[in-house]
Amino acid sequence: MKTSHQKASLGQPRQAYDEPLWWGLFSAGGVCFAVVLPAVILFIGLLLPLGLLPAEALGHERASRLLFSLPGVLFIGAAVCLPLFHAAHRLRHGLFDLSLGQDTRNKWLMYGLAALLSLLALALVIVGWLR
User: Fold this and answer.
1) Whole-angstrom Cα distance, residue 29 to residue 114?
2) In the prediction, which pLDDT does 107 show?
3) Dist. CA 110–CA 93, nearest whole Å
4) What is the pLDDT at residue 3?
5) Alpha-carbon distance 65 to 69, whole Å?
6) For 84-113, what is each residue's pLDDT tens digit?
7) Mean pLDDT across the stretch 106-128?
8) SS in 3 state form for 78-106?
9) What is the signed CA dihedral for 41, 45, 50, 54, rounded to 10 degrees?
10) Helical ranges in the chain per DSSP H
11) How many other C-beta atoms are found inside a 10 Å radius of the C-beta of residue 65?
12) I need a surface site. Which of 39, 43, 44, 103 has the fewest CB within 10 A?
């Protein structure tokens, strides 16, 4: 039986061992897009401005306390970071389907950008938490 390295040297394509990681992040990001973001939009974008929630529910002091804490880090992860990887995966496969660029370079570009923006978002929350 030939190993995957031997198969690749015989002209057969190599198996991408990192694909389950990217598909997992894509799936988790899709769930967050479908569940978390509509809830955020409903509460912050509709109910609060319409006066259906008390104004102090998300006053500056309370919102700051919530955001700059462990639940805030988890919220940013669910509302920002995972959807970034979802979008990066869609863009990467869209570029692949359109035969634009090299897939390895597109992978590094898309997922690298998602990771960089995720780290930036999390760093902003952590810096606020440490103040």
Assistant:
1) 11
2) 94
3) 10
4) 46
5) 7
6) 999 999 999 999 999 999 999 999 999 999
7) 95
8) HHHHHHHHHHHHHHHHHHHHCCCCCHHHH
9) 80
10) 4-9, 19-40, 60-67, 70-76, 82-97, 103-130
11) 13
12) 39
Contact 95, 106 (CB under 8 A): yes
Does 129 score more than 80 pLDDT? yes
Residue with the two structure tokens 């955001």: 67
Distance CA 131, CA 124 (A): 11
Six token digits for residue 36: 């978390």
Q: Which two tokens stand for residue 42?
A: 């409903």
Provide the whole-model pTM.
0.78
Residue with token string 């805030």: 72
Q: How far apart are CA 116 and CA 131, in angstroms?
A: 23
Structure-block tokens of residue 93:
């496969």
- Under a CB-based contact definition with an 8 Å cutoff, are residues 31 and 41 in contact? no
Q: Which residues contact 95 (CB under 8 A, 6 or more apart)?
A: 101, 103, 106, 110
**For 18-32, how does the pLDDT look when each residue is reduced to its tens digit (9 = 90+)?**
888 899 999 999 999
Neighbours of 83 (CB within 10 A): 22
